[in-house]
Amino acid sequence: xxxxxxxxxxxxxxxxxxxxxxxxxxxxxxxxxxxxxxxxxxxxxxxxxxxxxxxxxxxxxxxxxxxxxxxxxxxxxxxxxxxxxxxxxxxxxxxxxxxxxxxxxxxxxxxxxxxxxxxxxxxxxxxxxxxxxxxxxxxxxxxxxxxxxxxxxxxxxxxxxxxxxxxxxxxxxxxxxxxxxxxxxxxxxxxxxxxxxxxxxxxxxxxxxxxxxxxxxxxxxxxxxxxxxxxxxxxxxxxxxxxxxxxxxxxxxxxxxxxxxxxxxxxxxxxxxxxxxxxxxxxxxxxxxxxxxx
Length: 294
Hints:
The protein is α/β, with parallel strands linked by helices and 294 residues long. It has helices at residues 2-10, 13-20, 24-38, 54-80, 97-111, 124-133, 194-203, 207-212, 219-227, 240-243, 273-286, and strands at 43-46, 49-52, 88-92, 117-121, 138-141, 152-167, 188-189, 215-216, 233-236, 248-251, 259-267.
C-alpha cells in the first residue's frame, strides 16, 4: 500500500523507490503482485512515467487513511516506550543539505546515540507532502508550509542571512543595496526551489525578469557561472564555507538586507515532540561558524 501511494504521487518507479528506500525492481515486483491480488491494473505505464488507472486512483484514496492510522498506531506504541523503535526519517532541502549536514549529522549521532536516522534530500513541497503521508518524520525547511497542507508544527532553528556573490574582478562596493542590483545579471535556481522565490522577493524582481534569467539546479552551478563573469547571485551564509572560493567575491548587503529562517517541522500528531525539540537544539549547536566577509 505504501508503494502504491508513493508511485501515484511521484508518477515514476525510480522516484517512488527512492522515497520508500527500496530498489526499483523490488518496488515494481510488489506493485505487480498487488495488481494480481486486485485482479486488475492499478497503474498505466506510459514510457518513463506512470499514472493511476481509475481503479488505482480509488485504491490510493482508500489506502491513505489506512496508512495514516497504521503509522499513528506505530508512533503511539513507540511513544509508550519513550523513543522511536525505528530510524527517524529526516528530509532536508537541497540549499541546506550539503552545507549543514556534514556538521549536523555527526552531532546527532554523538548526542543521540539511541536514535538512528535516514536522511533524504528534496524540495520543500515534496518534503511537506512526505510529512503528511508518513514518508518522513522530520523536515528541515526554509519557508512556511503552504495553507491547506498537513497539520504541522515545529521550531525555528536560526536565521540564515543572504550575501551577494560577484566575479573576482567586480568593483561593487560594500554594503550593496538590494534595490540597486541589475536584475538582468542575477542568476537564480530553477523553479520549485524556495531559495529562488526568496531571492526574487529580496531583489524585487518581477516574474517576467525572473523568467529571463538563467536557472540552475544547484548553487554550485550558479557559483561557477559567477566565477566566469557571467552574472551575480545571492547566496545563503551557510553556503559560504563551501562555495566562497578565491574565484568569486562576497559582498555584504546594505541594511536591512535579507535572510531566510531555517526551521525543523513535524506532524502535530506525534508522541515524539520532546525528542524532536532536542534534535532541533542539537542542530542549533552544531551550526558551523560563518567565515568573515570581505
